[in-house]
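USER:
Make up one protein:

ASSISTANT:
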Amino acid sequence: MKTTTGYRAVTKFIIASPYKIRPVADLVRRKPYPEALSILENMPHKGARLIRKTVKSAASNALGRNKQLEEDMLYVKEIMVDEGPRLKRIWFRARGRADMLLKRMCHITVVIDEVRAEASQKKAGE
């Protein structure tokens, strides 16, 4: 979907801790789309696989809506990893006791935008 700031994709209710996914998101924030995909494909983390799917979805939203765009013209503008609800489970312990096990969830939001012509001309002139 087209927002005022770019093309967006949201993946919700992922059973993964946001604390483990945020460092992966920090590596690809503000990077060109092809570079971000290559970084995420070569990382062994579960969060890299989840973020890669969301980034690809946002890019396909952008390319599907705007036929003049190419993959090289896109960059990852924002990645937000927000906390979702928690699943509460019982964890049985010794001597008849029990602990609470919290399975954390997260929501991943990716915004992809096109590189402006002025910014690309400045880079080419440098």
